[in-house]
Fold these 3 entries.
Entry 1:
Amino acid sequence: MTTNVSEERLDPATIHQSVQEYYGARARTQTSCCAPDCCGGDVNDAKVDLYDAGDVAGLPQEVANFSLGCGNPTAIAALKPGEVVVDLGSGGGLDVFLAARQVGPGGFVYGVDMTDDMLALARRNAAKAGAANVEFRKGHIEDLPLADASVDVILSNCVINLSPDKGQTLHEAFRVLRRGGRLAVSDIVIDGAWEDLPVTEGQVRTALSWAGCIAGALTVTQYRALLAEAGFEGIEIDLRHHYRREDLGQEIDQVVDSLSSAVVEQLVGRFASASITAYKR
Ligand SMILES: C[S@@+](CC[C@H](N)C(=O)[O-])C[C@H]1O[C@@H](n2cnc3c(N)ncnc32)[C@H](O)[C@@H]1O
C-alpha cells in the first residue's frame, strides 16, 4: 500500500542548508535533545540513556548535557591511547571530548562539522573541558578536510543519515582511514525492506524533515551495501532501540495530515538506532 505524498526530489544543497539552519539554531540556543524529533527525538524522554554517568564524569555539566546524538560511539570504538580519531558531524563536541580522554595526550581527535555556530560552540566547550588534543575543522562529511590515510578511527553520532550523499560520505571515511583502521558509528536506520513499508523511499525522503534524522535513514541492507561499496569489511549493524511514535514527536505529527494514522503506526516502529562497526583491512 502506498500513499499520495509528493515525491519531488530534494537537491543536496537544499538538504545541507536546511540541516545547517536547524543545527545552527540548536547551537545558538544550546537546546539539546538526543535523537528523531532532532535526531533520535526525545530518546532521553523514552528513558534511553545514551551515556553512563561514568562516561561523562568530570566534564562541565553544560558540555556533558549537550548531545544531539542517538547512541554512544565511543562505547563501541574500543579506542586505544595514541590513536588519531575523527568525529563526523561533531556538534557541540561531546564525543570528541570523550574520545580525547580515551586516546590520551599521545592521541588526537578531530571534529568535523559544516555549521559555524556548532563549531563555535564546540571550540568554547573544548576550552571549558580543558581538552588540548582536539581540533574542530569546518567541512562537509562528503568532502572531509583531512589527508588520505591520516586517522585510525571514524566516529559519528546520528549524522550520516543527514548526508544527501551517504555513498560519498562513506568513501571519504574510507579514504581518510589508515589500513587496519575502523569505523564506529551510531545512526538511525530502518529495520526492514522498503517493499514492506506502507510508503515508498521517495515519500519518506520528501515528506519528513531531514534535520529530524529519519527522512534520510537507510535500511540496514542499504547501509551495509554502501559500506561494502566504499571498501569496508567486517561490517556489523546492531539495532539498539526501536522508536515509538511519542519518541518521534513533531517529526511524525508533521506528516499525519498526509499519511493516514494507520500508515504512520506501521511506519514508526521501523525506525531504530543502531551501532555500526566496520574495518579497512
Ligand atoms: C544530529 S547532530 C549530531 C551532533 C553530535 N554528533 C552529537 O551527537 O551531539 C548533527 C550534526 O552534524 C552536522 N552535520 C549534518 N550534516 C552534515 C554534513 N553533511 N557535513 C558536515 N556536518 C554535518 C550538523 O551541523 C550537526 O552539528
Entry 2:
Amino acid sequence: MAEIYWDNVSKRFGSVTAVDHLTLTAHDQEFLVLLGPSGCGKTTTLRMAAGLEDATEGRISVGGRDATHLEPKDRDLAMVFQNYALYPHMTVFENLAFGLRLRKTPAADIQRLVHSAAAQLGLEPLLQRRPSALSGGQRQRVALGRALVRQPKAFLMDEPLSNLDATLRAQTRLQLKVLHRQLAATIVYVTHDQTEAMTLASRIVVMRDGVVQQVDTPEAIYDRPANQFVASFLGTPGMNLVPAQLTRTSGTLSAAIGTQRLELPADSARRLERAAGRSVVLGIRPEHLHVGAPEGQGTNPMSLRARVRLVEPMGHETMVHVDLDHDVQLTARSIHHWSASPGSLVSLSLDTRHLHAFDPETEVACEAR
Ligand SMILES: Nc1ncnc2c1ncn2[C@@H]1O[C@H](COP(=O)(O)OP(=O)(O)OP(=O)(O)O)[C@@H](O)[C@H]1O
Ligand SMILES: [Mg+2]
C-alpha cells in the first residue's frame, strides 16, 4: 500500500477553481475522508489522484513516486465510483475476474484472487449469479470486489454507498471499516455524509469551495473545529452560533448575549481569554445546552432565559428549539423526553467546557487550543 501526496495542487475549469492550492497527504494505510458540501472539489481531488483529470498546477505523487503525468493505468490505484457499472451479461465471478483477464493474469491466480475478494465481502454464495439477480448492496459489494482483486497501491472511493438505502448503507459502511483493517489499505474516500466521515475516517479533510478548511481526526474536527464553517457543517443539527461580546469585569469573564449576561467559569474563561474585550461568535453544540425549568430573573448568572419555539421528539432524543430574547434561535438536544408548549419560558444552562468562540470577521476559532 502507498501514500498519496497532493503538492500544492490546483484545478481550474475555465473560470471555476474547483481545487485551490491543495497540499495533502493520504498516509500509508490511512482511511482519509474528503468531506464537504456539493461542489467543494472532492471528486476533482480524487480524479486528479487517479489521473482522470490533469492538475492545472502542482504535483501528485503515489508511493513516493511522481505521478503527475502518469497514465491512470500506471498509477496502480483502484477507483470505486458512486455509479458502479457491472457487466450485466456476466456472472459475479466474471465481473470480478474481468480486469484480471484483461491483464493476462494466469487462471490459477484469477481463481485465488476472486475467491479471496469474494470471501472478504461475503460474495461467495453469489459468484454464479448475474447482477440483475442481486440487491443494491450486493452489487455495491461486487463493485468493491472488482477494486479489491486488483490489489492496488491504494483505493479511491467516490461516494460508493450513496445509492444504497439507509440500512444497507450502514451495513456496508461497517463492512468497509472491517475491510480497511483486514487489508491495511490506504483509502481515500469522498462523501458529503458526515456520519460516514465520522465513523470511517482515520482523518477527515473538510473542504469548502476548493479550499481545505481543516484536516484532523474525527474527534478533533468535532470537538475543536478550526472555523465556523467546520463547526456548523458537522453535527445534526450543527453547532449553535450566537453573536456576543466578551468582557472581563473584576476577574470574571462574561459574555453579553443580547440583553443577557452569562458568567463563564474559570476553565472556559481561560480558553476564551484571548477574545476578552472583543465581539465574537459563540458556538455551542446542541448536546451541550440543557433546558430546564425557568428560574427567576437573573438568579443564575450561569444560565440564560429562553422561550420554547418548537419541540421535536425523535424517539431516542428530543430537539428543543428555543429563542433568546433578541430573536437568536438555539437548539438543545436532550436525551430525555421533553414536553413544553411553544411560548413557555425555560432556562438554558450551557456546558461551558464545550463553548467555542469565533472571530466574527474571519470566522476562525479564537480560543486557545
Ligand atoms: N468537467 C468540469 N467542467 C467544468 N466544471 C467542473 C467540471 N468538473 C467539476 N466542475 C466544477 O468544479 C467544482 C468542483 O466539482 P466536484 O465535482 O469536484 O465537487 P464535489 O465536491 O465532488 O461535489 P458533489 O458532492 O456534488 O459530488 C464544481 O463547481 C463543479 O461545477
Ligand atoms: Mg463529487
Entry 3:
Amino acid sequence: MTQLLKVENLKAKVEETEILKGINLEVNEGEVHVILGPNGAGKSTLGSAIIGSPEYEKTDGKIIFKGEDITEQSADKIAKLGMFLTFQNPIEVPGISMSNFIKNALEQRNGQRIRLWDFKKQLKETMEVLQIDESYADRDLNVGFSGGEKKKAEILQMLMLKPDLAILDETDSGLDVDAVHVVSKGIEKYRSTIGGALIIITHSTRILESLKVDKTHIIVDGRVVCEGGSELIDEVNKNGFEKYEAR
Ligand SMILES: Nc1ncnc2c1ncn2[C@@H]1O[C@H](COP(=O)(O)OP(=O)(O)OP(=O)(O)O)[C@@H](O)[C@H]1O
Ligand SMILES: [Mg+2]
C-alpha cells in the first residue's frame, strides 16, 4: 500500500492557544478514514492545518503528502498537488460564478487551459449526478445558496477537481434525507471513477452507510485518543465520547 498522507506529531495554535497538541495520522492511497470527536476537539482545525490555511500557526511536527513535505507549503500549492478540503461553513464568493470558480481551480490544478466546451459538458454531467439545477452554474459561488446547496456545490468541486485526497468536513450536516442520498452518490462516484482517498469529519453517520471505512480516529482536545476500524463508529454512536474525555 502506498502512503499518501502522513501527519506526524502536528501541533498548531491560533493566536496564543494551542489547538492541535501532537496529531499523528496516516492515510494510504484510496483509503477511507473517519474522524470523530466532540465539538471543539480540533477536527476542522486539523483539516485547515493540513490544507495549509494560514490561520493556524504550526509549531511542531510534519505533514508529508505524496512524499513531499508540505508542512510550510501554501494552500494553493497543496491544492495543486491534489488535495481538496470542503468547509464546514462554505464561504460565499461574490462576483465569481460557480462555473468560473471551478474552471479557474481546474486550470490551476492542471497548469493548462481547458476547452470551454469540454468543461461545460463535464460540469453539466456532474451537476446532473448531484441534482443541481443548471442555472446554478452561472450564479455567484455560494451566494444565497441554502446550507444544503452549499454542501452539494462542494461535492461538485471535488468531483470536477479529482483530488487524490479529499477532506470532507461535516459535508452531510444540514442535508435533508434526499440530499444525503444524492451527496452519497457523488461520493461513491468519486470513489469509483477517481479512486481518491477520503478523510471524513462527521457527527452523523448517514453518509458513511454506503462507504467501506478503513480506519476511524477519535480526536479529543487536540489529540488522537483512539483508533480502530468501523466498529468504533457504532461504539461512539452508542456510548458517546465520555470515556475518551475522561482520560
Ligand atoms: N480562528 C480561531 N480563533 C479562535 N479560536 C479558534 C479558531 N479556530 C479554532 N478555534 C478554537 O479551536 C477549538 C477547535 O475548533 P475546531 O473548529 O477545530 O473544532 P471541531 O472539532 O471542528 O468542532 P465541531 O465538531 O464543533 O465542528 C475550538 O475551541 C475553537 O474555538
Ligand atoms: Mg468542525
